[in-house]
Amino acid sequence: MTAPSEVSRPDKILYPDAGWTKADIVGYYRRVAEYMLPHLEGRPLTLHRFPDGIDRDGFFQQARAEHFGDRVGSLRIRHDEPTGSVEHMLCEDADCLAFLANQGTLTFHRWAARRGTIGRPDLMIFDLDPPDGDMGLLKRAARRVAALMRDCQLSPFVMTTGSSGLHVVAPLEPLSDFDAVRDLAARIAERLVAEHPDEFTTEQRIEARDGRLYLDVMRNAFGQTAVAPYSLRARPGAPVATPLDWVELDKGDLRPDGYTLENLFRRLGQKGDPWARMFEQAIDLPEARKAFDAVK
Predict the structure, then answer these.
(1) Cβ(242)–Cβ(162) under 8 Å?
(2) Rounded Cα distance, 137 and 91, in Å
(3) How confident is the model over 168-214, as pLDDT tens digits?
(4) Distance of CA 208 to the CA centre of its chain
(5) Contacts for 76 with CB less than 8 Å, ≥ 6 apart
(6) How many CA atoms lie within 13 A of 239 on its CB side?
(7) C-alpha angle 255/53/19, rounded to 5°?
(8) What is the rounded CA–CA span in Å between residue 165 and residue 155?
(9) Which fold is adopted by the domain 123-222+280-294?
(10) Which CATH architecture best describes the domain 13-119+224-240?
(11) How far apart are CA 49 and CA 52, in angstroms?
(12) How far apart are alpha carbons 40 and 35 in whole angstroms?
């Protein structure tokens, strides 16, 4: 667990509803590190920090702070102007996770690409949030995205976000750029909208969705991030973004925020990480695009 000396103000309450303290959060990230770190390796991060707890305003941080020193890795990336060059953060060991948690980081958001191939993602991401919390519609969306991905020879994986939705993610060989990945994801979304126009939409404006579920593919862009597996969320109950097996979508009591700091390790003890070997199923994007074009 966590040595008291590595936590400043260890008794500070960060989750008032559940009573979780900063020491609890640092301890959580130390304990979950063996499952979480493979999903962070080489990926620039954006932190969602709440130094005074979730009932106070938090803030996002993507640039590495100088005072972090060598406890946090770095990767300098050039963005289009006006952003320019940014020294991003990498976190690749348990000490780094604990240090950033001690800085008030509750949520880790990661890039879809890694160091060495930063312009070529190894993930395709669909971000699905249901209107009015409609779990039936959310589950149908996830299954239909997954089915069309499989028709494209992709291997979909599913995760609760710890917030209000699900992510459906497919591993890729990092050989194509973000624009190409987003283009195929958008084509998959457009086909699903054409097949199910009363349930799904690609309309970004909320007022134009008319109660339909938005098939969001915008995470598939350079510089965009998505919540990392096993990251806490800054919401009551300390929910956790949790990878699932597909059969778990059949559970009637499944909720996007159902796994929490309190119950996650019981789950991991029973099932391990369903995403642990996902990249054994990665394929090159042109194969998927060719398969998509062949789908009738």
Answers:
(1) yes
(2) 35
(3) 999 999 999 999 999 999 999 999 999 999 999 999 999 999 999 99
(4) 26
(5) 85, 86, 87, 88
(6) 21
(7) 65
(8) 20
(9) Alpha-Beta Plaits (3.30.70)
(10) Alpha-Beta Complex (3.90)
(11) 9
(12) 10
Inter-helix orientation angle 285-294/178-195, to 10°: 20
Q: Kindly report the CA angle at 273 between 250 and 224, in degrees rounded to 5?
A: 90
Its pTM surpasses 0.90: yes
What six digits make up the tokens of 161? Answer: 């976000």
Distance CA(12)–CA(195), nearest Å, equals 51
End-to-end Cα, the chain, rounded Å:
54
pLDDT digits (tens, 9 = 90+) for 110-128: 999 999 999 999 999 999 9
Q: Where are the domains of the chain?
A: 13-119+224-240, 123-222+280-294
Task: Establish how many alpha carbons lie within 13 A of residue 247's alpha carbon, considering only the half-sphere containing its beta carbon.
Answer: 2
Amino acid at 166: L
Question: Bridge partners of 200?
Answer: 213
The values of phi and psi at residue 125, to 5°, are -125, 130
